[in-house]
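Service request form, structural biology core

Requester: graduate student, group of Dr. S.
Request type: structure prediction, single chain
Budget code: on file
Notes: please return the result as structure tokens.

Sequence provided:
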Amino acid sequence: FVFSADPIHRGKASARFNSVSSVVYAKTYELTQYFALRQANQNLSRENAMLRTRDFVMHTDSTWQLDDFEYYPAEVVNNSVHKEFNYLTLNVGSLDGVEIDMGVVSPFGVVGVVKSVSPNYCRVLSVLNSQLRVSVKLASSDYLGSMNWNKRNYRNVSISEIPSHVKLTEGDTIRTSGFSSIFPPNLDVAYVQRSEQ
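Core staff response, request fulfilled:
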């Protein structure tokens, strides 16, 4: 009643109401943008998967065809890195086209191999699992080897079976060899940190 009768009080109340409502609107907008960002990230992941598939097919060996290879976007929902037998769980499954023995990669390289699949999830044998071996090659010379986790540090893997006469240089890139049906060739996997030859 006082506010509606007195123009000074009415002006102050209106200013305070506008200030409070502006804060509420701003917070509502931020919350809306946050949820929109999640959807935008999912859309970008799908688009990146499509572009990676197309780019791979355009720039790889003729032995790999589009029907053999396709990226599927996924998110990690569970992961371990400090056990001897590490696994991770992804939020994609058979309903998304995922099958057992599919390779799993990220923008940073090889992640692992799908070992079990349910309709909406899959369990992945991590590259940080001592049971997984990946056929690799030196990017500088194409000499082949085998990559396996050394069970000591989640940041390091071991490369074996490279001929002893091959000189390894610190910083050399290790890539997938393409000699398996799981991973295509030339995906960056690691780099040489130290040679024990």
